[in-house]
């Protein structure tokens, strides 16, 4: 028995094939919907780096209740944004989580997050397992996530208590060039392009429609 709340249809098939399970011996039991109607998804064209940081700062000023996770593309991006926000929003408590921190630093970050000491966590997508708390009402992506699976899992950290929440994704076409220099596998590039164009094409088509596409994927 394999259990997951967010696995996509294509990922399920990959798992079946990698485990050498025949289709006749493989049954999928899926809920009627993976849609999270309490999450409002917004996609925003990314300004310059300084303006991006300023825009995120303004968004956080308006966060009157709950907590926030900001996902960045890598450790250096996390560090830069952390220092900017820490200097300009001293009233809020910030945490940092990425792969270049040592094991003890990462454990402390998770511990402070789960106990409520940290209000705003700035992290790479490594910040995932065992970090769910009920009062996250805002997820910010400073760039397009690498795959639909990542996107679903990361925005799924919000609204765990069923209250209205928001997902904001900043995008830039320059992200494609940057990410393609990192991603070498053709299938991974396809996954990234799918998310990129999914978010842009459906930007003006209504939240319900966008969520249905996520569920179908």
Q: How is this structure best summarized?
A:
The chain has 217 residues and is α/β, with parallel strands linked by helices.
What Rg, in angstroms, do the CA atoms define? 18 Å
Total strands: 6
CATH class: Alpha Beta
Reported for the largest beta sheet, the result is: 6 strands, parallel
Query: What is the CA-CA span between the terminal residues?
Result: 22 Å
Strand order of the largest sheet: 1-6-5-2-4-3
Number of helices: 8
Explain what this protein looks like in three dimensions.
Its EC number is 5.6.2.4. The protein is an alpha/beta fold. It has one domain: Rossmann fold. The chain has eight helices and six strands. A six-stranded parallel beta sheet has the order 1-6-5-2-4-3, sandwiched between helices. Helix 5 (148-155) links the parallel strand 5 and strand 6.
Short key terms for the protein model shown above:
217 residues; alpha/beta; Rossmann fold; six-stranded parallel beta sheet; 8 helices; 6 strands; 15% strand; DNA 3'-5' helicase; 3'-5' DNA helicase activity
Chain-wise SSE layout:
Blueprint: H1 9-18, E1 39-45, H2 49-61, E2 67-71, H3 75-88, E3 94-97, H4 103-114, E4 120-123, E5 136-141, H5 148-155, E6 165-171, H6 174-180, H7 186-201, H8 207-216
Parallel strand pairs: 1-6, 2-4, 2-5, 3-4, 5-6
